[in-house]
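ingest -> fold -> write
write: protein_1
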Amino acid sequence: MVELRVVVSDELAETLAERARQEHTTPEQLASSVIESLIGSEDAPGRGEPGFVALGSSGRSDISEQAEEILRADFGA
């Protein structure tokens, strides 16, 4: 492992410390996890799926078949 020094604003440092307390970890471990999730780790090839993939269910089973109609109805496309 390599130790990396990062300079952040006081406000960001406070936010990081608070979030770390909420997650029962240290600010350093939380920052490391955030960087790893953004860039990836040496164990995982590529960046993987974006965080929003499979986030929730739309409640519809016909999204693929009806995509154009849904877009027109919702966005006037």
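write: protein_2
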Amino acid sequence: MRRVIQALCQLSKVFSMSEQKIAGVRGPYAKSAQRSSDILDAAATVFATHGYHGGSLRDISRELNVSLTSIVHHFGTKYELLEAVLERADRTTPGNEEFDFDAACAERGVASATLERVQSSLERPELLRLFAILAAESSAPTHPAHDWFVARYRRKAKELSAAFAYDQTLGRVSPHRDPYTLSRLLLGTWDGIQLQWLIDPTADMSRSMTAFFEWALPEAIKNLPSIPDGPVAR
């Protein structure tokens, strides 16, 4: 019961944070917001191609055909730009629209929200490649993004644990399963299948993730619609 109460409290915090999200920039700041978005797009391309150490702010300015001063004006440092790229990629869809994964988990269940996120990710392999490259690079404690990835995985595990516990209260997941163990298994499987898809584009990421849920959590997926074949990585 204590675990259930903790899960409900965690989800309450998630909804509260979601409600506090600020709407898009308007009026005289629109051009600046668009320029920032363009810089993030160019930075994602450069970092996904060359990695953090191999890509420079000058490469990004050339990609966008703007001055180096403009890049620094908007983001300050190379690491601040990298962090902004990662944060945006973690919370948006291919069209840079917000995707509230935690709210989707609460509304439809972890399995449904995960498969929905996987399906949308298929349309932006460059960002999956960016995460794969930087996650590997940041395994070195001295890498600038090391702390960001450590914090991200800890936060994701905590949020997924709460979401799985909430699923248990609704009968979506068996109460005999450990939510934290499920969260770590899901994160590891998800990362591994994404990497295999990037290396071998003939692999079907959606079907592989569906197979994981069918094996690990059949009760969570039995009422979900079938998953269509996904596109290959570009």
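write: annotation protein_2
The mean pLDDT is 83.
The chain has one domain: 2-12+30-221.
pipeline exit 0
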